[in-house]
Amino acid sequence: MMLIDRLNNDDRFARTSGAQVTEVGEGYARAELTVGEVHLNAAGVCQGGAIYTLADLSFAAVTNNCENVTLGISNTITFLNSAHLGDRLTAVCISTHDHHRLPYCDIKVTNQDGLLIAVMTGLAYRTSRKSTATGIV
Q1: Which of 23, 39, 112, 121 shows a CA-CA span of 20 to 30 A to 79?
Q2: Beta partners for 90?
Q3: Are 129 and 68 a contacting pair, CB within 8 Å?
Q4: Could you give the CA distance from residue 23 to residue 10 in angstroms, rounded to a whole number?
Q5: What is the pLDDT of residues 113-134, one digit of tens each?
Q6: Of 99, 89, 95, which is closest to residue 121 (Cα–Cα)?
């Protein structure tokens, strides 16, 4: 199974939230989510956890683009603007440092108008466990 299919099918939390990987390349991934009623917090804007889930999914796509299962070990997210009901959010992850054990990435989340919603950095750990994904796309 290709990486994009593996993440979209087997990451049950992301799938349930509506987040989906839409593009994967070498050191790059894009994931998308449309903000629905289920994503709104008590203030009526998109819950930070939904935005984080989207960013984390794109991060998983970039860091698992190798032979070994790779897991996030440290992420820092900063929310810059609110996302609202109906917004189409896009998370783009870029590999900043593709270390053989500790890959590091930068992720930007924007809405359909290009407004920067959040920025995140991610550090992952490449385990010795072999991945079952057979390719990136």
Answers
A1: 23
A2: 32, 110
A3: yes
A4: 16
A5: 999 999 999 999 999 988 876 6
A6: 95
